[in-house]
Amino acid sequence: MLEYSYLVLRLPRGTTRDAARQILVEHAERGGWELVRVRVYPDGRRRIQLRRKVIRAKRTF
User: Fold this and answer.
1) Rounded CA gap, 16 and 22, in Å?
2) Which of 19, 32, 43, 50 could form a disulfide with 7 if both were Cys (CB 3.0 to 4.6 A apart)?
3) E strands, the chain, in order
4) Which InterPro entries has this protein been placed in (predicted)?
């Protein structure tokens, strides 16, 4: 069964769409995170949930 690690980002309401996109691109390319959910609140705040697979090393001997 797959195991995931989660990260929640909270962006303030003044954050532009382009700035939010750039933040997500950085996390995806550098950290291996993938987008799970974006919630935009009525006042403009964003709550973004990211995840990535947890890889566990197994002994081979």
Assistant:
1) 10
2) 50
3) 4-11, 34-40, 46-53
4) DUF5703
CB 47 within 8 A of CB 41: yes
Interatomic CA distance for residues 27 and 5, integer angstroms: 13
| Confidence at residue 14, expressed as pLDDT on a 0 to 100 scale | 93
Secondary structure (3-state) at 33: coil
pLDDT tens column, 29-50: 999 999 999 999 999 999 999 9
Nearest Cα to Cα of residue 11 among 24, 2, 30, 1? 24
Task: Tell me the three state secondary structure of residue 24.
Answer: helix
